[in-house]
Design goal:
Blueprint lengths: L1 H23 L5 H15 L2 E9 L5 E7 L2 H7 L3 E2 L1 H7 L4 E3 L2 E4 L1 H4 L28 E7 L7 E10 L7 H34 L3 H16 L4 E6 L8 E4 L1 H7 L3 H4 L4 H4 L5 H6 L6 E7 L5 E12 L6 E9 L1 H15 L9 H11 L11 H9 L2 H11 L32 E10 L1 H8 L1 H17 L6 E6 L2 E9 L1 H15 L3 E3 L2 E3 L2 E9 L5 H17 L3 H5 L2
Helix pairs in contact: 1-2, 1-6, 1-12, 2-6, 6-7, 16-17
Pfam families: GAF, GGDEF, PAS_9
EC number: 2.7.7.65
Enzyme class: transferase
């Protein structure tokens, strides 16, 4: 049970991290962004204390935000540490990729330097990876653009689990620091743009200076910028783009002026673009590049006017989020798939089964009068539907009502083939696997599991699911099968498993026992798997040990 809970823990951690990163884009000012970064360390990364140290123009670092302890926040917020002391800290201890960890056995020499710090005394660690109150963990933030210009440093303390972060926690902290650096840079950019817009709304003399400031910020912004028409027949057409956007999409400015964002967006994301409001709108979607590929970007819109009474234009900030999306997809895949075989894990398997089930079995066939009511409806039901469709409050349609498109899962009759097709659940347990593990070691056992997973995957259809439940147990989901179809599939899968498997020049062989269950509405996911598991054991006991080893 502990092993099966790990994917849930990782998925919950990923969701918290995703929410913390999403919150970074909701802050309106630089100060709000800095505090949101500190709060995200506590709420999203599992630390009790989080601190954001920001590089000042003179190079020293000031504590700009603190979260987790009101007393500490009041004591050290706004205090400054010299750049030399910080560079010393970032060169000490252990380098965890871009992170820097200084254990308490080395950090005692830092107690008297000029970097503001808050710590409490504590006992010596009881085990190797226990967190000590004097341990220090820093996550440097660098400005975007591929350089090594230090933007600030995130410092964290007191993990809630009391242990030093493992590989998963380090990767999450490092990715969060990278996204925080982007959010802080964008907040500064937005602040500069807002100041320029304020000047544009003032007097005519200040307007000319502001236009130049705007042009500089627009042209040399590190992320993509575009100006588009608002209203009229050419609404949304791109009028002007900066070099960063041209590089991002692989198209020159002269070509981009022929398009609007609606022409460039991925077909699946056109609805997202249309739902994005003009002023203050924000959306994450994919835009096409010149080579035909699509790039994940974040669009942020604001409205600007050429003069006080002149035409209004749409200013769009385009940020490249491809790397973050790739991280999110990678984390989601790792949370829902088995690390050894690459197959869906037990959590993903249960999710896919649950998606096909409802809480009640299939309802009996409707009478002739009920069928007429379903086809034509009565006055009262028509009025009720119209009332709800107009966007006013009303009671939701009952489950199983006229607009319930759920297709109930049924179990075919094993004795009489009445043509019913259902979702077959084939529970597979390998025979003889334990002896291979015991005789040849876990390396050979892992190689056998990987090969079995490959053979099972090649024997099913594209829409079917092959999952590893744990150990030497696999489950195959195959929809649209009758009882005879499922029995034939089990035979094909067993025959695919039993040929010898070569590992390090040695041929080993395992058999397989299959139990066929059916996912049926009205059952829980646990009941579905338990039924298939029990039938597998019945099938296993019905064959002799020799025949089990032979498949």
């Amino acid at each position: 049970m502990e092993a099966e809970s790990e994917p849930y823990v990782r998925l919950a951690t990923m969701r918290q991290l995703h929410q913390a990163v999403a919150d970074l884009n909701t802050a309106r000012s630089l100060a709000d962004t800095l505090q949101t970064v500190a709060d995200g360390i506590v709420t999203g990364l599992g630390y009790e204390l989080g601190c954001v140290n920001l590089v000042r123009p003179d190079g020293d670092l000031v504590i700009a935000a603190f979260a987790g302890n009101a007393a500490a926040e009041a004591l050290i917020t706004g205090r400054v540490g010299s750049r030399a002391s910080w560079e010393r800290r970032l060169s000490m201890g252990e380098a965890w990729e871009q992170l820097r960890f200084i254990p308490h056995t080395e950090g005692w020499v830092l107690l008297d330097d000029d970097v503001p710090q808050w710590h409490t005394e504590g006992p010596e660690p009881r085990f190797e990876d226990e967190w000590h109150p004097l341990d220090r963990l820093y996550a440097p933030m660098y400005a975007s653009g591929g350089g090594r210009d230090l933007l600030g440093v995130i410092s964290v303390d007191r993990p809630r689990n009391g242990r030093r972060p493992g590989a998963w926690g380090r990767e999450a902290l490092q990715m969060y620091a990278s996204q925080a650096a982007i959010a802080i840079s964008n907040a500064r950019l937005r602040a500069n743009m807002q100041r320029a817009l304020v000047r544009l709304e003032r007097e005519q003399q200040a307007l000319r200076a502001s236009e130049e400031s705007f042009r500089q910020a627009f042209e040399y912004a590190p992320s993509g910028m575009a100006i588009a028409e608002m209203g009229g027949d050419q609404h949304g057409r791109l009028l002007r783009t900066n070099d960063a956007l041209c590089r991002l999409l692989g198209r020159p400015a002269s070509v981009l002026r022929r398009y609007s964002f609606a022409d460039l967006v991925h077909p699946e994301d056109i609805g997202t673009l249309l739902r994005t409001s003009a002023e203050g709108g924000r959306a994450e979607l994919r835009l096409s590049r010149r080579d035909g590929t699509y790039l994940w970007v974040s669009l942020r819109n604001s409205v600007v006017a050429d003069t006080a009474d002149g035409p209004r234009f749409l200013l769009t900030h385009v940020e490249d989020i491809e790397e973050r999306k790739r991280h999110e997809l990678n984390l989601a895949h790792r949370a829902s798939h088995d690390a050894l075989t690459g197959l869906p894990n037990s959590a993903e398997l249960k999710s896919r089964i649950g998606a096909r089930l409802c809480e009640r079995p299939d309802s009996p066939a409707a009478t002739a009068i009920e069928a007429l009511d379903a086809a034509y409806g009565d006055v009262e039901s028509s009025l009720t539907h119209s009332y709800q469709a107009d966007g006013y409050e009303g009671e939701a349609m009952p489950a199983g009502g006229l607009y319930d498109h759920h297709v109930h899962a049924l179990a075919p009759d094993a004795e009489h083939d009445d043509g019913t097709k259902g979702l077959a659940v084939l529970f597979c347990d390998l025979d003889g696997f334990k002896s291979i593990n015991d005789r040849f070691g876990h390396h050979t056992g892992d190689a056998v599991l990987i090969e079995v997973a490959r053979r099972l995957s090649t024997c099913v259809r594209d829409g079917d699911t092959v999952a590893r439940l744990g150990g030497d147990e696999f489950v195959v989901l195959a929809d649209g099968l009758g009882a005879a179809d499922a029995a034939d599939l089990a035979v094909r899968l067993r025959n695919a498993i039993i040929p010898p498997i070569r590992v390090d020049g040695r041929a080993v062989r395992v058999g397989a026992s299959f139990g066929i269950g059916w996912a049926e509405c009205g059952m829980s996911v646990e009941e579905v798997l338990r039924s298939a598991d029990q039938r597998m054991y019945v099938e296993k006991r019905s064959r002799s040990k020799v025949h089990r080893r032979a498949g």
